[in-house]
Amino acid sequence: MKTLSNQELIKGIRSGDKRLLGKAITLVESKKSEHRAQAEELLKELLPFTGKSVRVGITGVPGAGKSTFIESFGKLAIQHGKKVAVLAIDPSSSLNKGSILGDKTRMEQLATEKDAFIRPSPTSGFLGGIANATFESMLICEAAGYDYILIETVGVGQSEVLVSDITDVFLFLKIIGGGDELQGIKRGVMEMVDLIFINKVEEDNRLKAKNTKIELLRALHFLPSKEENWKVPVLLGSALNNNGLEEVYEKIESFINLKISNNTFEENRKKQAEKRFDYWVQEYILQKTKSDQSTEKFYEEHKKNASELKSNPSSEAKIFVEKLLKK
Predict the structure, then answer these.
(1) Percent of the chain beyond pLDDT 70?
(2) Are 132 and 36 in contact (CB under 8 A)?
(3) How far apart are CA 160 and CA 233, in angstroms?
(4) What's the pTM value of the predicted model, to 2 decimals?
(5) 114 near 77, Cβ under 8 Å?
(6) What does the alpha-carbon distance between residue 22 and residue 9 come to, in Å, rounded to a whole number?
(7) 172 - beta bridge partners?
(8) For site-directed labelling of 274, which of 200, 237, 258, 285 has its Cα 20 to 30 A away?
(9) What is the dihedral sign for C-alpha 274, 275, 276, 282?
């Protein structure tokens, strides 16, 4: 397969060529050192064209209807004249590192839209993989002129934190279940959300949905506000029937405008970039340590001590880092 130059990729990305956009994302997802070097140069040249999108993280328990919501909301945003990119984080097999789900097959209508781009990305068996290349994939989509970047989480613990750390708006999808409606919603998730949408609301469960809304608003009242002058809205609707999505769109626009007027929009973006910097510092130190003959030996020694529980893994890591810095 012919390796494309960065000039070819940039030209394709800027002109809206989805095939070359996909190839550029494949490049930043690669762990090969030569691909990594090319990806870094590509991102450097694309950076002046980034930062102009609205980045929306979407989470919810399995069965909450995330894919249906994203498809319906994406089509609505396109009707508003926006270009929409979806970065759907697929759960992966920890054995073969392959992707289990194919979100393109679950968003068939959106996939046919000229102004939509859908990219399923396997997490490669570890949740850190979500933020690993997704941040860079998001920058490439921005350089391609996409106005809304929708990032779907696997909805499992740490992934929510990682996606919240790279988006401007964090939306939580809820469905009506039996028993205590707040049961199973982690406090951490409630502290991260900017907007809640109770999905799959029909006539037969509307009363129950309204009661759930009251419970959620009561719970949110006791949590510190993430953004000054913003009370987290709890909206009702059905993504499948396109009910309530217009209100979601309006609330997202209002929230972004509020952040801009509060001078927190750019500030949050800077903090997110700093977190990515910290992530890559750790990643590169580890890579360098493993590949450098002079440090590899005592890295393996301390790792063995940790694995055999000769001492606490945290203590072994601390001793190793102290030795590394002295060296």
Answers:
(1) 86
(2) no
(3) 19
(4) 0.87
(5) no
(6) 10
(7) 59, 196
(8) 258
(9) positive
Over residues 21-52, the pLDDT tens digits come to 999 999 998 888 889 899 999 999 999 999 99
Residues 6+ apart with CB under 8 A from 233: 195, 196, 251
Element (H, E) at 206: helix 206-221
Tell me the two tokens of residue 198: 């109770």
User: What separation in angstroms does the CA of 223 have from each of 117, 229, 259, 262?
Assistant: 36, 14, 19, 20
Distances (CA, A) of 311 to 286, 307, 308, 326: 21, 9, 8, 21
Q: What is the pLDDT of residue 199?
A: 96
Asked whether the beta carbons of 185 and 165 are under 8 A apart, the reply is: no
Asked if 182 and 216 count as a contact pair (C-beta separation under 8 A), the reply is yes
Residue 305 burial (CB count, 10 A): 17
Q: Which tokens in the block code for residue 89? A: 């984080």
Which uninterrupted H or E stretch holds 169?
Answer: strand 169-175
Strand order in the sheet with 148-152: 116-122, 84-90, 148-152, 54-60, 169-175, 195-199, 234-236
